[in-house]
């Protein structure tokens, strides 16, 4: 490989889709180069041994080349996998879609890469799945530079357990009678503590509002699918 090559880069496939007769287009989260689009040529041929590696939720080391934005896969090595089943699988697709939005091309985000691995590990354990998602969303916003202070409200007053609050875009947490989230829930989130059912419900609504500010009207397909799956359970 030449000077435009990247060797054995730790990576995860976020999405893959067929390209022409025998190839696959990949959206790849890398540790050192952010989001990288990669063309895997010929991997859909019957004798290809690479196609089975290029799946979501598998830790890989990828080597690729190219002077342009779209890179060409040269080699793929398997490192580890995080088997997700049932609800955890759909949550994984949701996480992948979020990461694909908040991480940009050629924008290294090693903190998000590490956060992603931790989230997959917790999802694969299939315990406290909803809490895992809430803290992933919260930490993703922080790593992407969109953290909201959960210890103090927008007026600089400490969050109080007995009060109610709302999230207001461009301001943060504001005290409001009858607000959507309690101070006790905010304190639990700030401390990354165990979330009981009422706090989980408030945290879900709060984090959706926070995320939607930065999604700017973008529709998450995985969010809609996940909502339908949860209703069936």
Automatic annotation (TrEMBL):
Q: Which UniProt keywords apply?
A: DNA damage, DNA recombination, DNA repair
Q: Which superkingdom, per the lineage?
A: Bacteria
Q: Does the keyword Flavoprotein apply?
A: no
Give GO terms for biological process.
DNA recombination; double-strand break repair
> Which Gene3D superfamilies has this protein been placed in?
Nucleic acid-binding proteins, Recombination protein O, C-terminal domain
Q: Name one Pfam family in it.
A: RecO_C
Q: Which InterPro entries match?
A: ARFGAP/RecO, DNA_rep/recomb_RecO_N, NA-bd_OB-fold, RecO, RecO_C
> What region holds the DNA replication/recombination mediator RecO N-terminal domain?
8-82
GO CC annotation: bacterial nucleoid
Q: Which PANTHER family match?
A: DNA REPAIR PROTEIN RECO
| Chain's role | Involved in DNA repair and RecF pathway recombination.
Q: Return the NCBIfam families for the record.
A: reco
| Membership in a protein family | Belongs to the RecO family.
Against HAMAP family, the record matches this protein to: RecO
Name listed for the protein in its UniProt record = DNA repair protein RecO
The organism is: Methylomonas koyamae
Its organism's taxonomic lineage begins at: Bacteria, Pseudomonadati, Pseudomonadota, Gammaproteobacteria, Methylococcales
